[in-house]
């Protein structure tokens, strides 16, 4: 509506009186334009809610994927635990059978269990049944021998099949133990091969259920053990009701019968709870382990985010709605003011500027609310979507600012600045911004800068960029085939040594303009044909503003065009050549280092806040520097152990490893990696904070917010000092690396504590057994020059070695993974041999650790777990 008001005001300026215009035309245009504000506001509200919906859907998808990953990992861990448990039971069965057969039937299992403490919570009963199904002996006191068990499934299976195999029964109620249990049995064969009975070990279903309950799966989480026959063996939720029940008719059963492992989502047959389920068939046994996470747990955070985002979207929507109503009211007021106005053009433009300023106030409120949300502790994904909401409001603000700019032009309140700037960079940047729009239409977007055009000139870069951006944007918009070319050349100018006349031209191959339409082209809010407005949009204000800006810069904007073939917009302005050498003091700025010093200065920024990182990079960019970035203290330590830096700007307060801990760790690195100048970045400015930074090994202290002058002072010192540092460390002697660098005991000990002695033993054994094969695959890939195969194997070795603590092996494998695609065959082979050498060292350490673990286990039998105890007994 503001734009419509400008149309009417501009039209009044071009005509001698309001009476020359017909009343229907005036009111028709006003009524159509009156809906522009409400439509724009409604569109913004729709965009907010659509973005919110998309974000919530994204969060739900991420939560579902994360839950499936966690459930799959747990199912895999439970599978391994069950395999070890069943193998332990089977070994005990074989041992009991051997004892029974060797005793010629005179075997007291109760006495044997007393002398062999293998009966723990894992299994509560060991018994022997003769060939007729009579109970011969059991470790449970009380029942008389001779109880008839010939109808039991496990007895019938072994009696009917002369196969020496482990049989796992469905849950049964024990006639001796009076408990629900799973029977693990093996056949007893006599010397002539005939059936001699069954040896049985009974595991309580409560044992597995209690073990699984110790794992916190959240509200409604469940772990279950199901046979491939569909019968539930154990379950954490409602165990008494569900053990022994069948899943044969469920979709879950159909799913795990189709694959060895997988995922499933649906409601439980037993309690109706919706769950995300991961399942794995247990190797070599007819069992399936299931891990289910309830929707209530998986999507709890998503529900909280939905509520918070809904409130935020509602508040912003209310703000936009209020702004839209206010804008509509202002539009109505401006329409009435226009109809009643009889003053001159300047008075009308001043009124429009005042109204535009008033409308910017609620718009700034909307942008400010978005900024508050950005600092409300949101996740990175949430910040991204709130940023979208903020950018939408900012775009609306920019539209109103354009109207304000036009009103300032009308009122003669726009002044041209005189600043030194890089003309080539300005043109390249202006074209680059519109590159994606041109690419979408498959248009060429070219730059043609004549060789004699000076690189640096003095002028108004903001206004020149605004003109070029508008002209290039129009070229892209009105061109369907071909492209747009931006040309800059030097035109004849008055003979002054430091003055140059620059000729700019923007040529397109678009729809062109008729000769009759050219005189009306630069009138405000004018379209040559109503069909153009309907097809391409726009208000017709852009070229009018461009012409006035070019006039302010001392030139004239013109056009050459032929309908159907394209147009060329051109102008020429006089500019002074910038005689100030880049890097010298300009407009009071601090002196900058030489270009070589800036380019060679190695800077690392350690900052966990994305906004702070962007501000820092922008500030040092203005000073001519660039920097590497680390988001955490741990990441900074890893980078500093591989690269040399002249200065490190270290944020003090970071999650995990903070700046103080990272500094202390960097100072412990071998020379020269420990010698970088470290500057603290912190909002805490107390003397104690400064002392803590210096005590940790930092060299300097900068309080936030950081200014460009502060950065320039530090960086200039480093740029001037680094030549001495380069000389000192130009060719450092090789540093002797001791075992802690090769092997990180902390990582190894943490892993051992997490997975236990059995787990770390298995990991080391697998590492020693599998890595030689991977080295063979690496050598084969290097000989054949297959970079992808080399990269995959190197990645596996890197990850495995790092998880155990073999850091040198992990680092050399990581380097090969990174560079594999660009290396020649000979270089690949050399890198592979470096990994092989690192593995030889790691293997020695691994075998030493493995031997120490086994020796300690043999020396301390009384400290083993119940499961380890059972394995030792058998």
UniProtKB/TrEMBL annotation:
It catalyses: ATP + protein L-histidine = ADP + protein N-phospho-L-histidine. The modification Phosphohistidine is found at residue 795. GO terms for molecular function: ATP binding; phosphorelay sensor kinase activity. The modification 4-aspartylphosphate is found at residue 651. Residues 602-719 form the Response regulatory domain. Residues 756-849 form the HPt domain. Residues 354-577 form the Histidine kinase domain. It is a multi-pass membrane protein. Residues 1-21 are annotated as: Disordered. Keywords: ATP-binding, Cell membrane, Kinase, Membrane, Nucleotide-binding, Phosphoprotein, Transferase, Transmembrane, Transmembrane helix, Two-component regulatory system. Its EC number is 2.7.13.3. The chain crosses the membrane at residues 32-56, 309-328. It is an enzyme of class 2 (transferase). It is found in: Cell membrane. One of its GO terms (cellular component) is plasma membrane. It holds the Pfam family HATPase_c. InterPro entries: CheY-like_superfamily, HATPase_C_sf, HATPase_dom, His-kinase-like_sensor, His_kinase_dom, HisK_dim/P_dom, HisK_dim/P_sf, HPT_dom_sf. At low DSF concentrations, interacts with RpfF. This is Sensory/regulatory protein RpfC.
């Amino acid at each position: 509506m503001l734009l419509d008001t400008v149309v009417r005001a501009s039209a009044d300026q071009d005509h001698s009186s309001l009476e020359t215009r017909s009343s229907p035309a005036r009111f028709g245009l006003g009524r159509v334009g009156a809906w522009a504000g409400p439509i724009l506001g409604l569109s913004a509200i729709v965009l907010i809610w659509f973005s919110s919906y998309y974000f919530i859907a994204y969060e739900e998808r991420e939560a579902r994927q994360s839950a499936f990953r966690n459930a799959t990992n747990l199912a895999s861990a439970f599978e391994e635990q069950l395999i070890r448990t069943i193998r332990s039971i089977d070994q005990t069965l074989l041992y009991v059978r051997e004892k029974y057969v060797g005793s010629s039937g005179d075997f007291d299992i109760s006495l044997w269990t007393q002398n062999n403490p293998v009966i723990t919570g894992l299994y509560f009963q060991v018994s022997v049944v003769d060939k007729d199904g009579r109970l011969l002996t059991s470790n449970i006191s009380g029942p008389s021998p001779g109880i008839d068990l010939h109808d039991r499934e496990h007895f019938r299976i072994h009696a009917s099949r002369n196969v020496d195999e482990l049989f796992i029964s469905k849950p049964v109620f024990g006639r001796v133990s009076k408990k629900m249990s799973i029977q693990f049995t093996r056949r007893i064969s006599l010397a002539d091969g005939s059936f001699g009975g069954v040896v049985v070990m009974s595991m309580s279903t409560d044992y597995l259920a209690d073990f699984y309950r110790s794992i916190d799966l959240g509200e409604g989480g469940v772990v279950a053990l199901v046979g491939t026959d569909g019968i539930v063996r154990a379950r954490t939720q409602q165990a008494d009701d569900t053990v022994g029940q069948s899943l044969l008719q469920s979709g879950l059963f159909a799913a795990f019968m189709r694959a060895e492992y997988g995922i499933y989502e649906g409601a439980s047959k037993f309690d109706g709870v919706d769950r995300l389920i991961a399942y794995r068939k247990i190797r070599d046994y007819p069992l399936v382990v299931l891990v289910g996470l309830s929707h209530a747990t998986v999507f709890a955070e998503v529900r909280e985010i939905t509520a918070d985002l809904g409130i935020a979207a509602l508040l912003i929507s209310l703000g936009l709605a209020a702004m839209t109503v206010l804008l509509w009211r202002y539009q109505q007021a401006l329409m009435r003011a226009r109809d009643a106005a009889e003053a001159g053009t300047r008075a009308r433009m001043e009124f429009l500027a005042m109204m535009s300023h008033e409308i910017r106030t609620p718009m700034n409120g909307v942008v400010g609310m978005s900024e508050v949300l950005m600092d409300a502790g949101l996740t990175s994904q949430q910040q991204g979507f709130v940023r979208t909401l903020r950018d939408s409001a900012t775009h609306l603000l920019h539209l109103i600012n354009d109207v304000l700019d036009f009103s300032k032009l009308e009122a003669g309140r726009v002044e041209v600045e005189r600043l030194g700037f890089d003309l080539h960079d300005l043109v390249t940047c202006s074209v680059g911004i519109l590159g994606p729009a041109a690419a979408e239409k498959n248009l060429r977007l070219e730059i043609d800068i004549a060789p004699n055009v000076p690189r640096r000139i003095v002028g108004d870069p903001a206004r020149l960029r605004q003109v070029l951006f508008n002209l290039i944007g129009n070229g892209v918009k009105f061109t369907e085939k071909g492209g747009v070319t931006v040309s800059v050349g030097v035109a004849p100018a008055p003979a002054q040594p430091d003055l140059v006349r620059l000729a700019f031209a923007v040529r397109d191959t678009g729809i062109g303009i008729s000769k009759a339409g050219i005189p009306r082209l630069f009138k405000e809010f004018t379209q040559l044909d109503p069909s153009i407005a309907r097809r391409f949009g726009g208000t017709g204000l852009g070229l009018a503003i461009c012409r006035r800006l070019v006039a302010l810069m001392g030139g004239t904007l013109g056009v050459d065009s032929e309908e159907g073939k394209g147009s060329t917009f051109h102008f020429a302005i006089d500019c002074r050549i910038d005689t100030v050498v880049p890097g010298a003091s300009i407009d009071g700025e601090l002196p900058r280092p030489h270009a070589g010093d800036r380019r060679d200065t190695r800077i690392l920024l350690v900052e966990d806040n994305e906004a702070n990182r962007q501000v820092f990079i922008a500030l040092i960019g203005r000073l001519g520097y660039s920097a590497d970035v680390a988001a955490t203290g741990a990441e900074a330590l890893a980078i500093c152990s591989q690269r040399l830096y002249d200065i490190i700007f270290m944020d003090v307060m970071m999650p995990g490893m903070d700046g103080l801990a990272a500094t202390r760790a960097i100072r412990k690195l071998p020379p020269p990696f420990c010698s970088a100048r470290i500057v603290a970045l912190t909002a805490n400015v107390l003397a104690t904070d400064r002392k803590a930074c210096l005590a940790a090994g930092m060299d300097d202290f900068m309080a936030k917010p950081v200014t460009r002058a502060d950065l320039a002072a530090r960086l200039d010192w480093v740029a001037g000092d680094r030549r001495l540092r380069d000389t000192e460390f130009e060719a450092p002697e090789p540093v002797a690396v001791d075992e802690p660098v090769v092997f990180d005991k902390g990582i190894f000990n943490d892993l051992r504590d997490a997975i236990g002695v059995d787990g770390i033993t298995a990991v080391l054994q697998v590492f020693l057994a599998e890595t030689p094969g991977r080295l063979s695959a690496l050598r084969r890939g290097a000989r054949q020059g297959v970079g992808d195969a080399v990269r995959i194997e190197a990645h596996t070795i890197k990850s495995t070695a790092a998880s155990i603590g073999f850091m040198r092996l992990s680092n050399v494998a990581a380097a090969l993974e990174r560079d594999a695609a660009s290396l020649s065959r000979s270089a690949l082979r050399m890198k592979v041999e470096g990994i092989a050498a690192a593995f030889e060292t790691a293997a020695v350490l691994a075998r030493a650790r493995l031997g120490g673990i086994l020796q300690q286990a043999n020396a301390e039998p009384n400290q083993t777990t119940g499961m380890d105890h059972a394995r030792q007994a058998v």
